[in-house]
Write a structure and sequence with these properties.
heterodimer; A: mainly beta; Nuclear Transport Factor 2, Chain: A; six-stranded mixed sheet; 2 helices; B: Rieske Iron-sulfur Protein; Naphthalene 1,2-dioxygenase Alpha Subunit, Chain A, domain 1; 2 domains; seven-stranded antiparallel sheet
Chain lengths: 143, 429
């Protein structure tokens, strides 16, 4: 979906109390958006706007649209509790724009929950395996 | 210790800045963004002679704390010794050059080079025992085996280094920009602190473009259209544009634009989206500021915001949140940016979260605004490749106003302050 810019459908996968967070490159799993400076710490409202913005031609950093490729591997179900099912996976995402290819690698931690019989994302936290964003410069796509 | 870390310089070939006040024209030649010789001269005349921001006191709360970072192209250690005194050293072993500390931060009584094991106390003194006879009896009498210290001075909690032994004192260098640090100091009786680490990113454009952009009041509505759409939704009403705008020439190339804005400010302007509980908290903060600094100044501290450029490469934007950013050219067309968030010491978790949300909504590599600035800068930089055919940037906006009429924030006077100082220093005065 993300590769094809089907962002509306992607957003519909989230619960209405969902969070989407990207801590600073190199942050560990305990990183807390109330104490640490992240790149992205969206609640559902801001995530909705992020999607709206990405689809807007006035989001100059993503217009003309970049070309993306998301690869996922090492999917692991880590357990479940009252929050939902905890799932993690590794990712490599490529983004190409202005004839430059940026590579992001790391892992996602998901909390999934069933709402009205459908599996929904209650939390997505994306950890970039790097110690800076010197190479890429920005996080203007959904990793 | 060397007399000076500054190398001798040559002169710049031509003037790249045209300041034609009679005809209301101000132009900058685009070659200054591309040329290797210009960058080499900037390294000599600007980055080796100006005061450069190295860190905030809150980053080193205890004796023996250290951080390492690149400042002005040089690897540095910024630390406190056992007695708590602040130091800045070049992070290079006096023996053969390797970095004596490679962690980003920590607490350590000394530094040890991993290459040959030379060790140093955290006041920089050589602290290595060698077997007798391998070095002269009086080895290090001239300090050749100590870490090289760099001139370090502070204003309020902001620390700066200068690689030029002959540099004027920091306070006289900062000139009228001291008021900007004073206003930030007035946010709280408890002091301010750097919050939760640094964003380190890069921009494929010349470093001077980020200085211009950081206090460019003219670009906001076009470049940041999507941010204002978001803000309109977030605050539940139209984003009203400033009624107050001041442009301040803070001397020595420093400048600031000041005004009100539609967003909420943690200290201390409430917006309905924050809810009733936050309203009481924000009103309490405002009352505290008023009782401490007076009503008139509290208005400036709490309601108005400021985008400030401290020459040559420190930006302090006290807007919907406070960001400090500094940047350095890796090459004419690439800069490394380091950005921090500043918050009030001891503010509640809820308030800190709101501050950081405000920061991330606009600022940084994942914000709704900064990436569009970056795109604009990179796009401009690509355009400059045609500088021989399209040689000039126009920075004239507002220059032809009569003297009796103050500049506005969407004029470009603040950038002209930067460029006049840049030109003066590059011309070698």
């Amino acid at each position: 979906m993300l590769d094809e810019w089907r962002l509306g459908e992607w957003l519909a996968l989230f619960t209405e109390d969902a969070v989407y967070e990207v801590p600073r490159a190199g942050a560990d799993e305990t990183a807390d958006s109330a104490e640490d400076l992240f790149y992205i710490a969206d609640n559902y409202f801001r995530l909705g706007h992020r999607v709206k913005r990405m689809l807007d031609k006035a989001a100059h950093a993503e217009w003309p649209r970049s070309v993306q490729s998301h690869m996922i591997s090492n999917v692991r179900i880590k357990g479940s509790d009252e929050e939902g099912v905890h799932v993690s996976c590794r990712f490599i995402t490529h983004r190409a724009k202005n004839e430059i290819v940026d590579t992001y690698a790391g892992h996602h931690n998901y909390i999934l929950r069933t709402v009205d019989g459908k599996l929904r994302i209650a939390s997505k936290r994306t950890f970039i395996a790097s110690d800076s964003l010197r190479d890429q410069g920005k996080v203007t796509i959904i990793l | 210790m060397p007399d000076s870390l500054v190398s001798p310089s040559k002169t710049m070939e031509a003037s790249y800045v045209v300041d034609d006040r009679e005809n209301g024209l101000f132009r900058v030649n685009r070659k200054v963004f591309l040329d290797e010789d210009v960058l080499n001269l900037e390294r000599e005349r600007i980055f080796s002679r100006c005061w450069l921001f190295i860190g905030h006191a809150s980053e080193l709360p205890d004796p023996n704390d250290f951080v390492t970072r690149n400042v002005g192209g040089k690897e540095m250690i910024f630390n406190r010794d056992r007695k708590g005194n602040f130091h800045a050293f070049l992070n290079t072993c006096p023996h053969r050059g390797a970095m004596v500390e490679r962690q980003e931060s920590g607490n350590s009584l000394g530094f040890k080079c991993f290459y040959h094991g030379w060790a140093f106390n955290n006041n920089g003194n050589y602290a290595t025992r060698h077997e007798k006879g391998v070095y002269p009896e009086d080895f290090n009498q001239d300090g050749c085996a100590n870490l090289v210290p760099v001139k370090l001075e502070q204003y309020r909690d902001f620390f700066f280094v200068n690689f030029d032994e002959a540099a004027e004192p920091l306070e006289s260098y900062l000139a009228d920009s001291k008021q900007i640090f004073d206003i930030i100091g007035d946010h709280s009786p408890n002091g301010m602190e750097v919050v939760g680490g640094a964003q380190k990113y890069s921009i494929r454009a010349n470093w001077k473009l980020l200085m211009e952009n950081s206090y460019d009041g003219y670009h906001a509505l076009d470049t940041h259209e999507t941010y204002f759409k978001y803000l309109t939704e977030a605050i539940g009403g139209p984003a009203e544009m400033p009624t107050v705008t001041n442009v301040m020439d803070l001397k020595n190339g420093h400048a600031s634009i000041e005004g009100d804005a539609p967003w909420g400010r943690p200290v201390a302007k409430w917006i309905p989206a924050w809810g009733e509980k936050a309203k009481a908290e924000v009103e309490e903060i405002r009352r505290e500021v008023e009782s401490r600094v007076g009503k008139e100044r509290a208005e400036r501290v709490c309601r108005l915001g400021r985008n400030t450029g401290i020459f040559p490469n420190l930006v302090i934007n006290d807007i919907m949140a406070i960001t400090i950013r500094t940047f350095y050219p890796v090459a004419p067309g690439v800069m490394n940016v380091t950005a921090w968030a500043l918050g009030v010491k001891g503010e509640s978790r809820e308030f800190r979260k709101r501050r950081l949300d405000n920061f991330l909504e606009f600022l940084g590599p994942g914000g709704f605004a900064t990436p569009d600035d970056v795109e604009a800068l990179e796009s401009a930089h690509r355009g400059y490749a045609a500088y021989q055919l399209a040689p000039w940037n126009d920075i004239s906006r507002g220059l032809s106003r009569p003297e009796s009429e103050p500049f506005k924030a969407d004029d470009e006077e603040q950038m002209r302050c930067f460029w006049r100082e840049w030109d003066r220093r590059m011309g070698g005065e």
